[in-house]
Structure formats: C-alpha cells, structure tokens
Design brief:
The chain contains 14 helices and 22 strands. Strand 9, helix 8 and strand 10 form a beta-alpha-beta unit. With about 500 residues, the protein is of the alpha/beta class. The strands form six sheets. The chain has a seven-stranded mixed β-sheet, with helices on both faces. The chain has a six-stranded parallel β-sheet with strand order 1-8-7-6-9-10, sandwiched between helices. It has two domains: about 280 residues, 3-Layer(aba) Sandwich (Aldehyde Dehydrogenase, Chain A, domain 1), CATH 3.40.605.10; about 190 residues, Aldehyde Dehydrogenase, Chain A, domain 2 (3-Layer(aba) Sandwich). Helices cover about 35% and strands about 20% of the residues. Belongs to the aldehyde dehydrogenase family.
Length: about 500
Amino acid sequence: MINDILKTFSIREQNPGASDGIDFMPGSGDRITVWSPVDGQTIATVQTVTRTAYDAVISRAESAFLYWRTVPAPRRGEIVRQIGEALRIYKDDLGKLVSYEMGKSLQEGRGEVQEMIDICDFAVGLSRQLYGLSMHSERPCHRMYEQWHPLGIVGIISAFNFPVAVWSWNAMIALVCGNVCVWKPSEKTPLSAQACFRILSEVFKRNDLPGGLCNLVQGGKDPGAWMAGDPRVALVSATGSARMGKAVNTAVAARLGKCLLELGGNNAIIVSKDADLDMTLMGAVFGAVGTAGQRCTTTRRLIIHESVFDRFTEKLKGAYAQLKIGNPLEAQNHVGPLIDKDAVAHYTNALDTIKKEGGTFIVDGGVLEGAAYASGCYVKPCIAKVENRFSIVQTETFAPILYVMQYREIEEAIAMQNDVPQGLSSAIMTLNLREAELFLSAAGSDCGIANVNIGTSGAEIGGAFGGEKETGGGRESGSDAWKAYMRRQTNTINYGRDLPLAQGIEFNI
C-alpha cells in the first residue's frame, strides 16, 4: 500500500531535486532514514539540505518574490483555489501517507488534508479582502488611508504531529498575501511534505509560474536555525516545543525580524456540577486520546466538581476500557502509536514521576508488547488522579496521559485552569449560563482558545488559532491572522494647493 502511494507522489529514495517551480533540496547533505511508528518499517531515506543549497534556495525565493508581489491578489487566490482542488483529488492517498508516516488514525489523516482544503477555500476569499482603513485627516484637502503589502520570504517550521495541515495554514495565507515560502518540515515526517510539494508542482507547472514560490528544505535542527538567523527571511512561523520556540524567538529578535510562534499546550476542561456528563465524556476522551495525545490542543487536565467527580471518573474508566489500540489505518482502532521510541521514553518517565509526586492511577498506563505492536511505540492511554501543583502536571508530556483533579467553586476551577505556564486551549462543560460567561470573561480563561460545551481539541480554520504565555502568542489560520504575513503602510495624499503641517505647526520660509 505505502509503495503505491509513494509512486503516486513520485517520491523516490533519491532526492528528487528542483523541478516545476518547486525547490526541494539541491545539494548533497546527510541522509535521514524515515520509518513508520505503525509497524517499525523503513519507508525511505531522505537527503538533507546543505548550507550552500539552503542559500541557493533563499536566493531563488528572493527572485520569485519580486515577481509574485506584483501579481494581483485575486489572481494569487486563483492559484490557491487550484491547489485546493488538487488536494481534493489526492485527499485519500495523502491522508493515508500522513497516517502511516506519523501514526495518527486514518480518519485524522484524512481530516488533516481536509484542513488543507478548508484553508485554501478560506484563502481564496481572503484574496479579495486584504482590507485597509480610511481615516479623516486633520489637514484640509488631505486623504489618509492604510494598506498592506507582502513581507517577502516566509519561513515555516512545522512539527511532526500535523505533518501537512499547519504548513498549509501558513503557506496558503502567505501566498495570497504575496509572499513566497520556505518550509522546513519535521525530520520525522518528511515524505508527507514531499507529497504536498508534488501536488503544488502540478498546479505551478500548469500555470507557467516561476520556480522559487514555494521551497522545501529538509533536515534536522540546522535549516530551522539558519532561517531564524537569516535577515532575508522576513517572518519565521515556528510550531513546536516551548524550548524550540524560545531559541527561534531569540535568534529572530536579535536581527529584529518577525516571529509567529505556536508552541506547547497544557489544556484543561472544567467539568461543572451542571455539565451534561454524556457530552462531556465524548469531548474529554477524544481530546485526551486523539492522535495518541500528541496534539498541542490535547486535553491533559480535567478539573471536575467534587459533587460529580466519582460519577464522572467511573464513566471515564468505562470509556477507556472500550478503546482499541493498534494500527491506525484500521478503522476500528481509536488510538495509534507515539511518533518514536524517544516519545515512549518520555511517556514512561512521566508515569514514574506521577507516582513519585504522590499521584494515583485510575486507569493504568504502560507500553504494549506483541506482534501487533512490533514498532515499540504503542502505549496505553491512562488517567491519573493528581494535584495541579505537581511539577509533572505543570509540564506538557506529548502522550495520552490525562490528569484529573477536584474543585469546589468555579473561581477556584478557573484559577487552577490558568495556573500553568502554557495558554493554548481551554473549555468548560456546563449548562449554567453564569459559569459559561464567567469562563469567557476577562476574569476567566487566560488561553487563546476558550470553549463552552465542546472539548479543547478540533479548532476550525475560520477562527484565529494560537495561545498566550509559553504558547508563544502567535495566531494562524482564520480571522485577521493574515496581518502577520504583511506589513502595514500608512499613506497620506495632499490633493490641495497648499502644504499645511500637522498639529497646526507653521514653518515659513
């Protein structure tokens, strides 16, 4: 199956080079072995970019920008529309590749490609709505307004857990804004990135577009570090850990560049005594075990009112007992593998720390063994009763570990929800209007995303996505997130015969 899909996207062991308006990785760097956590099988080897090759890619992107910025935005939108149509054609094959290479369920793999299609549709409409404001001048016969221009090269650093969707959030918006892109995907999921570029290649070739509009540089940490320190890269959009984000932000800030950060999450659902517990169960379980706990929006904490704590945790135990763990390409399985054995080690270390800090397990964890789990990357989703102050609860473990704790008053629950370094997604389950409105008020959740009666996971592209505190403060995808990819310019036109100065200043000569 996987070999047929690789042939569909013309992905070979040998580096495919640059073609049809796409730069992959000219040059001869080291090679990375790509293997699947689904079955532990080697898929391919990928050639990494050298510094010389990276510089060549950036130079070509600079030249492409000089052309692309002059193309009318609606015409740029038409190219993105065609990309969306091409993704519709390849949705099934690309979804399977994402699932097999990363380990998420096939439904989630296809859903990730659907996110790409959705952001293309959003960007097409946006291409006719890059609005500026008109202001009244204090001077007679003057008109003031603002407009938005493209930045130049947008560097995109993406993470393994969403091998293609988060890149598209950035790239499709950047393209309609008139920018060109250089993408550094995770070295753990490079083949999905190559497949995306094959799809773009068809569209660019059909429209006789020049090379360098979109570029792919693959490797470990080096290409990302080069982009962060490169003044030719106007904006670096980075998704990953807080540690990585701080390093990128420091390098970009040193050259006074622009940075958009989407970092870790430590997301909580408050379960009120007035919650619909059946609805809550669905949101909590999917949020906690979807993508094997490897989403930045994964539900990691449940803050449950003491009056319903025992009843709801019993419901959780029953739901967890029904989870099927195994090959994510088989539809009956709910939970696939972690990305690699390093992730498994982080998971097992977290379990040990929970015990040391005094936590107890409502549902036990552990690493699964046997022929069906031969990759060594399958683990049991678990539930631990803890206190919010535990150091392990304050950190983000990228694994299906759910922490549960109790509260008495809603203000206490909100304080607990906010009392972590991260601030991405949050939710409250309640039928009490006062509680819901308090949670959404300035005295409520301090996260970039705050939901009522839905879980923390599963954002739509129409809303701006991102968070506060150690989550980085960036916003991607919908709403007015497009402004991060453009520079604002204020314009004043004097159509009179005199030159009056602002603030009534007189300067006679």
